[in-house]
Every structure is written in structure tokens, then in C-alpha cells.
Write a structure and sequence with these properties.
39% of the residues lie in helices and 20% in strands. It is of the alpha+beta class and 421 residues long. An 8-stranded mixed sheet has the order 1-5-6-11-10-9-7-8. Strands 13-12-14-15-16 form a 5-stranded mixed sheet, sandwiched between helices. The protein has a 3-stranded antiparallel sheet with strand order 2-4-3. α1 (15-34) runs antiparallel to α5 (137-154). The radius of gyration is 27 Å and the shape is elongated. The relative contact order is 0.12.
Length: 421
């Protein structure tokens, strides 16, 4: 019988790696919640129309990458390829947007049928932050200050660079699009294949082409900045002033665009040179028209998403991980003789008195030598040994597994104090 394997590009997270993921996720949660953001959770499966209307039918995601199928009722459904559209749908459906402000965050798997490579999978994980009801540059700045704080907490602030741009209003962007298309249409034969295809469907994406010849051609193209409306200029200047005052360094990248149709005004990416081609670890921007586009009242909105897999790779590459992430046990309880009920009770007493400790009780039998071998392999700092003599005297033996210190036989209350230290 053929051995079953995971689907290509959909990876398992093994116990040896889960500690790092938990560290990253808990650090993110602590930071965003310190700014007053609340968690949302929404389904992985959505109506296909949600993504066609939000992302745009002529984008690579909708045309090539979505996992879309008909369910048993014949309705077209899609595994979510990104989180913003689902978040807007959920907030609108439950009445959280009209005449209100919201600051929310979410995490979970997304799905795109892409060629799997380092840092890019078909099932990948994102942490997203979305805000609604605030139109000024202050909330844009708050999101960037929050991400900068997260990078400092994770120890990667020196390895990432903030790139900023503004796309202007929809009207300004439409005027620029016409000028760009006119310029590039005269030079279509000089464009790379992807850019030629995007010329009719999504010409702004040509600005971030990775083809050197296309980038050289763009040097003479009309500049988006020349088509900006006054409000967008003022918004962008206000954002930069707030970042300057907060000491957040950034680069203005006039060719930075986002791959989804719903962005306007502010767009940004945090990028790194430490991961090769997959250099973007966090990206987002303002999408003031999306709520209305999906059937709601006009609502200003801005948010971003960060790729968990890429952040994990970056933490590993920079070797900025706290000690003990690969260890799941602090205390290993060993039972010598017919005292396993009492050993289990002692383990529970330790958990009750010192809930921050991770306590594992030996299971599966075996002599003392075998149990101590298991204790050592667990990675625990100490073993708590309980035998018949200790039970009779209300004591337990504390053995240090990682330090050259003599073992101690202590009353249970003394044991708890020793473990506390």
C-alpha cells in the first residue's frame, strides 16, 4: 500500500518547531493587544464571489491561484487566499462598521496554488491587523509604530526596512494608469512576458516587475507622484511627519504597489535582504473603498498582514531565538516502586503551586535507570524522584539534570520553594 504524504506545498508543523511558532504568535498577540486590538476569527471557506469582488477578477490570485470548487449545493466556494476580504465581510455582516471604529487582528492559514519554494507555500499562515472608521494618517502611523515595536520585541528591527508609497485616490490612480498604459503600449515589445500580460489587466503591477529591462524602461515612464491629488499628498506628508517624530526610519519607494485591486493612498512593506528573493515579511496599506465595494457604507480602512513562515525563517536566520524553545518540560517526575498514584498527586501539587512550570509525569513503566534516561531526554532541568521511603516521610528528592549540584531530599513545601527558585 502506498504511503500517504501531505499535499505538496502544505507542510506539517512538528513538535520540534511548534515552540518557535508559539513564541512568535504569543509575542504578536502581546504587542497588538497592548495597543487595544481585539482578535477575530472567521471561516477558511468563503463564497468565491467575495474574492472576485474584492481582489479583482483579472488578478493572478483569482485567475490562477485560488482553490475554488462547487459544494454539494452547486455553490462556488473558495479557500481564503487572504484575510482582509473575509474580515470586511465578517465585520459588515455582524454590524461592526457603520458609524463605528474597529481595531481587530486575526491569524490562520491561507491558500494559494503557487509553485512551492522557500518562504512560499500553498497553505501558508498569516497574522493580519485591520482597522476601520478612521481616515487620517494617524492610524496609518499607529500600525507602523506597532510593527516596529514587534520587530524590536523579536530582535529583528535591524534586519528589516520600511518602504512607503502612496497610490492616491481612485480618480488620481485612474488618470495615472491611462498615462502609464499609453507610455508602455508604445514600448510593449520591450516588456517582459508577465508585464505584457498585465498591461491590459493590471498595469500598476508592472511597476514592481523584477525584470531588469522592464525596470530600466520604467525610468522614463510617467511618475505616479505627479498625478496625486492634494488630499493624498497631505495624507502622505502627515504620515511621514508622524513617523519622523517617532524616530521610525523609512524609504519612499515610488514604484511600490500592492498586488490587490482594493488599495488606495498609503501602501507599505517591511522588507529584508536576509531571505533571498522572498524579502517581504509584512505588507499592507489603506483600502478606503473596499467596504463599499462589498456592499457596505463607505468606510475608511487600513491594515496589513505578515507571513508567519517568512518571519520564522528570519528568526532562525538571525539566530535571535530565546533559549528553551525546543524544550517542552521543566520538571520530570519519576516514581520508584509502587508509588505512582502518589507521584501523580505530587505532580498535580507542583502544577497547582507553580503553574508556570511544565511538569511531566513518567508513564509507561520501567526501572529507575530507564526512567532517569527518559527524564534526561525530556530536556527538563530537574527530576523529582518519589520512592516508598520518601512517601512514608512526606518528602521527595530533587535531582539537577543540567547543573553539577548535589541532589536534595526535601519536604514537599520545601520542594515547591526550591522549584520556585
Amino acid at each position: 500500500m502506498k504511503k500517504l504524504q501531505a499535499i505538496r506545498g502544505m507542510n506539517d508543523l512538528l513538535p520540534t518547531d511548534s515552540g518557535l511558532w508559539q513564541y512568535l504568535e504569543s509575542t504578536v498577540a502581546d504587542v497588538v493587544q497592548s495597543y487595544g486590538y481585539q482578535e477575530m476569527r472567521f471561516p477558511m471557506l468563503e463564497p468565491t464571489e467575495l474574492f472576485k469582488r474584492s481582489i479583482g477578477e483579472v488578478t493572478d490570485i483569482v485567475e490562477k491561484e485560488m482553490y475554488t470548487f462547487d459544494d454539494r449545493n452547486g455553490d462556488s466556494v473558495t479557500l481564503r487566499p487572504e484575510g482582509t476580504a473575509s474580515c470586511v465581510r465578517a465585520c459588515e455582516q455582524h454590524g461592526l462598521l457603520y458609524n463605528q471604529t474597529q481595531r481587530v487582528w486575526y491569524q490562520g492559514p491561507m491558500f494559494r496554488y503557487e509553485r512551492p519554494q522557500k518562504g512560499r507555500l500553498r497553505q501558508f499562515h498569516q497574522i493580519g491587523i485591520e482597522t476601520f472608521g478612521m481616515s487620517g494618517p494617524d492610524i496609518d502611523a499607529e500600525l507602523l509604530l506597532m510593527t516596529a515595536r514587534l520587530w524590536r520585541e523579536l530582535g529583528i528591527i535591524d534586519a528589516v526596512t520600511l518602504q512607503l508609497n502612496t497610490l492616491g485616490s481612485s480618480a488620481a490612480r485612474a488618470a495615472y494608469r491611462d498615462a502609464l498604459v499609453a507610455y508602455l503600449s508604445e514600448r510593449k515589445d520591450q516588456l517582459d512576458e508577465d508585464s505584457q500580460r498585465r498591461l491590459d489587466s493590471n498595469p500598476l503591477r508592472i511597476l514592481d516587475s523584477k525584470d531588469a529591462n522592464t525596470q530600466a524602461l520604467l525610468n522614463g515612464a510617467p511618475a505616479l507622484h505627479d498625478y496625486l491629488d492634494d488630499e493624498s499628498r497631505e495624507h502622505f506628508d502627515g504620515l511621514k511627519a508622524m513617523l519622523d517624530a517617532a524616530g521610525i526610519s523609512y524609504e519612499v519607494n515610488p514604484r511600490l504597489v500592492r498586488g490587490l485591486d482594493y488599495y488606495s493612498k498609503t501602501v507599505f512593506e517591511w522588507v529584508t535582504t536576509k531571505l533571498g528573493a522572498q524579502g517581504t515579511v509584512c505588507a499592507g496599506g489603506r483600502y478606503d473603498g473596499l467596504v463599499e465595494q462589498l456592499g457596505g457604507k463607505p468606510t475608511p480602512a487600513v491594515g496589513f498582514a505578515m507571513g508567519v513562515e517568512r518571519l520564522v525563517l528570519l528568526l532562525q536566520e538571525l539566530q535571535v531565538l530565546p533559549e528553551g524553545l525546543d524544550r517542552s518540560v521543566d520538571v520530570y517526575v519519576v516514581a520508584m516502586g509502587d508509588v505512582q498514584p502518589q507521584a501523580f498527586a505530587l505532580a498535580e501539587q507542583i502544577r497547582n503551586g507553580l503553574p508556570h512550570l511544565r511538569v511531566m509525569s513518567h508513564c509507561g513503566g520501567g526501572n529507575f535507570k530507564k526512567q532517569m534516561k527518559k527524564a534526561d531526554a525530556s530536556g527538563a532541568d530537574v527530576a523529582v524522584i518519589l520512592g516508598e521511603d520518601e512517601v512514608a516521610q512526606g518528602q521527595a528528592t530533587l535531582k539537577f539534570l543540567r547543573e553539577d549540584r548535589p541532589q536534595q531530599t526535601l519536604a514537599v513545601e520545601e520542594l515547591l520553594r526550591a522549584l520556585q527558585d
